[in-house]
Structure formats: C-alpha cells, structure tokens
C-alpha cells in the first residue's frame, strides 16, 4: 500500500470515529489501530466495517480497528498526523452528551472492577507486546545463522550474525524492566536500570541464599518483579522526599533499594520460578505430549478471543532464555490451522453466499500466515458452531505435534509472534531442521484437514445452511457476519488483544 493510500485510509477512518475531537489517544499493536474515545456513541460501526481496508472492529477498553499486520503500522502515523493537524474542534457539550459520557465512564469502571485478573494479564501482555518485532527479527537471523553454520557456508559471517541475533536476548531483561515501569506508572529508565542488575556480569561475585548468583538468573520474570518494585519505591519517595532534593534522592533510593532487593532476593526466587516453568513444560511434553497438545491446541482460539493469549508471552520468553526455543508455540500455532480448515469448509458449504465467501477470500492469506483475528471475528465466531469445530482442528494438530514430543522429537520456535507458515524460518529443536519442519508441517496439515472435516459435517445445524447459502442482497446483509460484528454473546464480550 502506498503512502497516499495509507493516508486515504486514515482520512476515511477519522470522521467515522467521531473526528479528531473525539480521539484522546492513538496506538497500535500487530494488527489493530487502538483508539481511546471521548464518546463511543459517535462511532459509526457499520460504515467502518464497510471500508475496504478494515477487517473488523472490536470494542474493549480501547476501540480497536483491525487493519492487519504491516498495514496498521503504516496507517497509524498517518492517522496521528491527521488528528494532530485538525486538532480538537470546538463544540458545545450538551446535557445529553454529558450523560452519555457519564454512562460510558460508569460502564468502563464497572468492567474494570469486574475483571481484575483479566486486566492484570493484559497489563503484563502490554509489557511484552512491544518487544515482539525485535524477537521476530532476531529469531529469523538466528535461524538463518544456524542454517549457514550447519551447511558450513560463510564462516567469516556467521559469528557476526550470531552476535546480531543474540544481543537483544542478552539484554531483554533491561527492555522488560523499562516497559514494566512505563506500564505501571513509574519512570521507565529507572525500571530499566534496576532490571539491568540481573544481566550485569558482576553479580557472579554475589551470594544469595547460600549460592552464587549467575548473570541473567531470574530472566524476564526477575526483571518484571524488579521494575514493579522500583515503581512502588519511587512512588513512596515522591510522597516523602522534599522537593528540593527529590531529583537527587528519589532516583538514588529507587535504584539502591530495588537493586539490593533484586540481587539478594528476587533474582534467586525468580530463577527458581523460571527453572520450574522449564521443568514443568518439559515434563508435560515428555510424558503427556499428545494430551497436552490436544488441550493447548484446542483452547488457544478461545484465549485469543478473550485477549488472554498474550499473557503466555512471559512463559515463551522464559523458555527461549533457558533452552533457546519455546516448544509450546508450535503446538499453540495449530489453533490457527484449525481455523483455516474451518474457513475453507465454510467457503465450500456456502457456495452462493458471495458476502461470506468474499470475507474468507480476503482473510485466508493472513490466516495461513498465522494472523487469525480476521477469520475469528469475520467468519467462525459469529457463525457459532464453526468456531467450535475450528478448535477441534486445532486440538488435532496440537495432539499430532505433542505426540512427537513424547517420542523425543521436540519442535520449538526461537521467537514469538509469527505462526502458521511464517513460523517455519524460526523452527528449532533437538532433531535437525528437516525433522522439525516435517513434524510442524504435518501438524498444520492435520489441523487443516480436521478443521475442514469437522466444520463440513458438524459446523452447520438445522436450517443454518439454507438460511446462509443465498446470494440475495438482503439475505447476505442479514447473514454476513461482518468482521467482528457481534463477535461474541453479551455475557462474554470478545476482547482479543494482539
């Protein structure tokens, strides 16, 4: 998409979300433009969904417009520029508008208080999501370097590639600390400074709980805990240190207190927790691989639907730190394969519904590359049963990959973020690249096949095929799910966060 097209997309979206005066903040993740709005009632959902570049919308704490990977990163700066250029227009605030705003604030507050655990998981996810591009880039470079090393090619270049791929992972604790402090309302650089203690080589001279510490001990979990502690120490100092010496004492006390607690406590505790995660994951796959894969692959789509899948990022990062790869991600990726198989079956069953078939055709390429939200919110979830049969396909693919883990053939990923076919360059394990690609590819084929068959034979009930399989404009408008429209029942709102 050219720069002018990106600007045109942003210009088309802005008036449909209430104009610049209604936008209070703009951000984006891997696939979505996330907006904080003053008045939700000003948004024209139907018109937004009708825009060619909009794959769907999701209402959560922020209003999320699904644009797809790559595209959202290019449209967001154009949208921000338009909001800044036009500025907040002056307008009269009516009593009705104030009432609506009050009701909206009440609703948001009620939702926030009702799901504290869910919001905590999202906050943790927001710490790690900004790190995903670097994890992907370094993971791909590591994969290329491993291939060149195995083939004996470019021996003078591979050490440089190894350094390039490993540098970020060596300092990931610092970035986690920085983002954690930022997310929890502290000074980001202080969070990074405290977390840097964990990777400092000199901690090898320190003993805690009767044992010598190792640089990096505790990893990302230790960095997260250290930065959260730093935020609370900083807040305590801000309320008690006199203003005249605040600039000197507050950062000093924050780094000193948090750093010492990290060295003499958090590093050891977080190290034990991290080791426990690695041991548990290995035991699970070694002893119950097929069953574990069945459960993980089958439940991952609901986690995506609820926006809780990002909470697994710290676990993946911990496994990558310990073992060089996460064996959980290829299993979880099978959920996307089940979703693709499901969508193909829907496409085949509803031959006359040009609306749904057009949605599937536009969303399938992203689905093959592991971006599942367009198919989830545009096809399977609004239809109901196909979402369940997609999960069945994911469970079958997960069981396939898990079964080989039980046989000792582990397949993992050197980075997090990509899925589907995009995961092939990041595959790693203990049996060689050929075996790993064969097992992972076999799992995808099983997921596609079972997702297709389960949806074809069990995905439609009663009069559902007759009602949906029509090419009339009226029926298509009534039946077309429309990306993310009524993506879930009111009792369990769809709040995926990518």
Automatic annotation (TrEMBL):
Pfam families: PTS_EIIB (PF00367), PTS_EIIC (PF02378)
Membrane-protein topology: Multi-pass membrane protein
Transmembrane segments: 127-148, 160-178, 190-210, 216-233, 245-270, 290-313, 325-347, 387-407
Residues the record marks as active site: 29 (phosphocysteine intermediate)
PROSITE patterns listed in its UniProt record: PTS_EIIB_TYPE_1 (PS51098), PTS_EIIB_TYPE_1_CYS (PS01035), PTS_EIIC_TYPE_1 (PS51103)
Entries under InterPro entries matching the protein: Glu_permease_IIB, PTrfase_EIIB_Cys, PTS_EIIC, PTS_EIIC_1, PTS_IIB_1, PTS_Sugar-Specific_Components
Domain (PTS EIIC type-1): residue spans on this chain: 122-474
Name of the protein this chain belongs to: PTS transporter subunit EIIC
């Amino acid at each position: 998409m050219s720069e002018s097209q990106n600007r045109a997309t942003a210009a088309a979206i802005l008036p449909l979300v209430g104009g610049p005066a209604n936008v209070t903040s703009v951000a984006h993740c891997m696939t979505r433009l996330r907006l904080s709005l003053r008045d939700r009632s000003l948004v024209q959902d139907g018109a937004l969904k009708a825009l060619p570049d909009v794959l769907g919308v999701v209402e959560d704490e922020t209003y999320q417009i699904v644009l797809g990977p790559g595209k959202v990163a290019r449209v967001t700066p154009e949208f921000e520029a338009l909001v800044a250029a036009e500025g907040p227009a002056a307008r009269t605030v009516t009593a009705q508008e104030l009432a609506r705003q009050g009701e909206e604030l009440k609703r948001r507050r009620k939702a926030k208080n009702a799901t504290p655990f869910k919001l905590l998981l999202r906050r943790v996810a927001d710490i790690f999501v900004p790190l995903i591009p670097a994890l992907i880039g370094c993971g791909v470079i590591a994969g290329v370097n491993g291939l060149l090393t195995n083939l004996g090619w470019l021996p003078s270049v591979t050490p440089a590639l190894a350094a390039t791929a490993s540098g970020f992972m060596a300092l990931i604790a610092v970035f986690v600390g920085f983002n954690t402090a930022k997310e929890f309302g502290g000074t980001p650089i202080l969070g990074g400074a405290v977390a840097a203690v964990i990777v400092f080589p000199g901690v090898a001279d320190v003993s805690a709980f009767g044992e010598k510490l190792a640089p990096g001990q505790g990893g990302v979990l230790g960095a997260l805990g250290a930065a959260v502690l730093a935020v609370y120490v900083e807040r305590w100092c801000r309320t008690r240190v006199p203003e005249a010496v605040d600039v000197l004492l507050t950062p000093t006390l924050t780094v000193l207190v948090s750093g010492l607690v990290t060295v003499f406590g958090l590093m050891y505790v977080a190290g034990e927790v991290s080791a426990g995660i690695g041991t548990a994951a290995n035991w699970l796959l070694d002893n119950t691989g097929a069953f574990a894969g069945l459960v993980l692959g089958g439940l991952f789509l609901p986690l995506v639907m609820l926006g809780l899948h990002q909470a697994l990022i710290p676990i993946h990062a911990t496994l990558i730190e310990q073992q060089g790869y996460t064996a959980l991600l290829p299993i979880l990726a099978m959920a996307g394969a089940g979703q693709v198989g499901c969508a193909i079956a829907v496409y085949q069953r509803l031959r006359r519904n040009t609306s749904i078939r057009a949605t599937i055709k536009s969303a399938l390429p992203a689905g093959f590359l592991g971006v599942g939200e367009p198919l989830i919110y545009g096809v399977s979830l609004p239809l109901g049963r196909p979402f369940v049969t997609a999960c069945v396909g994911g469970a079958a693919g997960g069981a396939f990959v898990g079964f080989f883990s039980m046989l000792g053939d582990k397949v993992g990923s050197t980075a997090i973020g990509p899925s589907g076919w995009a995961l092939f360059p990041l595959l790693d394990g203990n049996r060689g690249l050929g075996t790993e690609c064969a097992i992972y590819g076999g799992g995808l084929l099983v997921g596609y096949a079972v997702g297709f068959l389960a949806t074809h034979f069990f995905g439609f009930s009663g009069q559902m095929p007759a009602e949906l399989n029509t090419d009339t404009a009226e029926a298509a408008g009534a039946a077309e799910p429309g990306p993310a429209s009524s993506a879930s029942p009111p009792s369990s709102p769809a709040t995926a966060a990518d």
